[in-house]
Amino acid sequence: MRLTIEAIGAAGDGIAHDEAGRPVFVPFTLPGEVVEAEPGPTRGEGRAAALVAVETPSPDRVQPPCPHFGTCGACVVQHWAAPPAAAWKSARVAEAIARAGFPDVAVAPASASPPNSRRRADLAVRRGAQGITIGFHARGAADPFDMQACFVIHPRILALVAPLRDLMTRVAALHRAGSAMVNLLDTGPDLWLRTDGPLAPRDRTILADFAGAQGISRIAWSRENSRDAPEIAAQDGPANAVLSGVALPVAPGAFLQATPEGEAAIIAAVLDGLPRRIPGKPRIIELHAGYGTLSFPLSARGRVDAFEGAQEATSALQPAAGRAGARIKAIRRDLARQPLLPAELNGAAALVLDPPFAGAPEQVAILARSTIPRVIYVSCNPAALSRDLAAFARAPGWRVEKAVAVDQFLWSSQVESVVTLARGP
Asked: For the residues 361-371, what does the mean pLDDT come to?
């Protein structure tokens, strides 16, 4: 098929149309390019295709820095120059807001985190006839490719890949499949291993030696696909994150913002969404507070009621807030099953909502009908953002005051956003 690429879709593939007007999705292409593609299977109302050749390249096409680009399933637009890629991500946020019922909202080009800044990686591990394979999942596949380079994750994490490959050859608990999740904390790498077999006594000795040799303060372990909390297999020191200058212990696999630059951009946008002047002793409600990434900065502007469902997060946040003298009250609550009710919102100057990927449909339905004057919504999923903002568009009096795009998942199709909703004209 000879096709002209018209746009880039939500997954990062180029979109063209065949002679019947049906969409054709071609990866690794750019708007305006004329390409040759091999037709593939049906995909939604159209079909997928494999790129064969680029006949007319876009002036925005660049050489991908990573040798794994095209094989790795993580990066999809490494062949696109940074300015148009940032504009595409911001346009995705603007389109999501418009679909919700708030047209013509300006969203600045997404601020991108630099290469090799991501401090979290979840690596798949496989044992096969050729030995251990460890890396991200291959594009369109359940198994990983053998990672030798990466221009996204922090060099300290990348430096662990080869030693982990050697480690897993010696761990009897890995029969065929497992994973290695690394969080780069302020106290060093924190490793959570998951295997498909039980951890043997000799495995624990091997892990302890590995932790000491690699400067890893803690190694946790659990069975692959188990819902049980991981057990500590080896530890030699604290496993702490520092949030806004406050150190606090975090659990294995703790959710933290992916890059320092992304974290700073989200904090700045949230604080910018607060009212310029908040009289008296203002109360700010925060939902899905986690370990307090936003709680500590918010506490400089008012008293924060920080709601979070994970016991380990609230148990770490409250003592840390006390030590820092921060005006934070950490409250454990399953917000999916028990969203805040209108009466609980009374007297709050603003509410900050940072839900999981799926969004918070039950909660936003209540917020949209409440009397709270301002909601700052932090989203990592444009589809969920659009659905949730529609509840505010249907309710009287709400407007989108500002919106900011944040790109801390460089070269991927993912984009985050901070949207400030306020009442009034």
From this structure: 96
Residue with tokens 């949209």: 368
**CA 34 to chain CA mean position, Å:** 33
Cα gap 104→95, rounded to integer Å: 9
Residue 345: other Cβ atoms inside 10 A: 17
Rounded to the nearest 5 percent, the helix, strand and coil shares of the chain are 25, 35, 40
Note if the pTM is more than 0.90.
yes
d(CA 366, CA 201): 52
Can you tell me the distance from the alpha carbon of 221 to that of 195, in angstroms, rounded to the nearest whole number? 8
Q: DSSP string of 46-94? A: EEEEEEEEEEE--TTB---S-TTBTTBSS-S-TTB-HHHHHHHHHHHHH
Known binding residues for S-adenosyl-L-methionine are 257, 308, 354
What local confidence, expressed as pLDDT, does residue 110 receive? 84
User: Virtual CA dihedral for 122, 127, 131, 133, nearest 10 degrees?
Assistant: -20
Please give the positions annotated as active site: 380
Lookup result for tokens 């295709």 = 49
- The full set of domains in the chain, from first to last, is 2-61 (2.40.50.140), 84-114+256-423 (3.40.50.150), 120-248 (2.40.50.1070)
